[in-house]
Amino acid sequence: MARVQFEHIYKRFQKVEVVRDINIDIKDKEFMVFVGPSGCGKSTCLRMVAGLEEPSEGEIYIGDRMVNGVDPKDRDIAMVFQNYALYPHMTVFDNMAFGLKLRHFPKPEIKKRVEEAAGILGLEALLKRKPKELSGGQRQRVALGRAIVREAQVFLMDEPLSNLDAKLRVETRANIIKLHQRIQTTTIYVTHDQVEAMTMGDRIAVLNGGIIQQIGAPQELYDHPANLFVAGFIGTPS
Ligand code: ADP
Ligand code: MG
User: Fold this and answer.
1) pLDDT, tens digit, for every residue of 169-183?
2) What pLDDT score does 165 carry?
């Protein structure tokens, strides 16, 4: 089970409170989107699950395990960032294998996982190429592949499409949804784009000013926005 729970999570930098009393229960296999304007605390929430920041108050659970204070590499998460830097001198295979090599996985296991992930993402024919020989969309798929091979319990994605042009964004969005349907890893996906949120999320948490304004399925938010902020942000002025 890869449920992720936030229980009364607060985060302060110096004395500035950037996240306030976040409570959310993300179900096993769920694709949860955190959406809200720039600076509302989305990345901070994700980074606390990853262990890159510690909450000032409250507890975070991955599965049944309280992970406060647990080292990021012991959290069984895989993160896809906005700036998905690939190693330019390494092949696609080696880029995808890198994290597993660091963790001393046996070679045959690495080969099996990379080939499986390549199959899922349609990268089989590109494994021997270098990043500069790939299109932007193919590179983004390699970045996703690096996360998949970890076979982590939870995927964390922080605006993974924001460096892509509009056409590629739509294509990669579809790839991520397909990927999730196939492997069903619990995912927290951060974006400031409401269209992305509405088309991708099983549920969406709308944040503003470090506070969750509403959590619900896209249709619920659309039909019954909890307040003017949600109505305006989701875009249903009537
Ligand atoms: P979002 O991802 O929604 O754009 P962030 O979570 O990155 O927002 O940031 C939320 C707020 O916290 C912002 O005001 C940001 O400036 C502040 N913040 C984020 N990280 C730090 C940090 N390490 N030190 C101080 N302030 C930070
Ligand atoms: Mg951010």
Assistant:
1) 888 888 899 889 988
2) 83
Decide whether any atom of ligand 1 lies within 6 Å of the 54 Cβ: no
What one-character DSSP code corresponds to residue 96?
Answer: H
Q: Which of 9, 44, 56 to mutate to test the pocket of ligand 1 (most atoms within 8 A of CB)?
A: 44
pLDDT per residue over 27-45, tens digit each? Answer: 999 999 999 999 999 999 9
Q: Are 46 and 188 in contact (CB under 8 A)?
A: yes
Is the full-model pTM beyond 0.90?
yes
> What ipTM was predicted for this assembly?
0.98
Torsion of CA 102, 106, 109, 115, to 10 degrees: 60
How far is ligand 1, taken at its centre, from the CA of residue 110, in Å?
A: 36
State in Å: Cα 47 to ligand 1 middle: 10
Please give the Cα distance from 180 to 10 (Å, whole number).
Answer: 29
> Which residues surround the ion ligand 2 when the cut-off is CB under 5 Å?
43
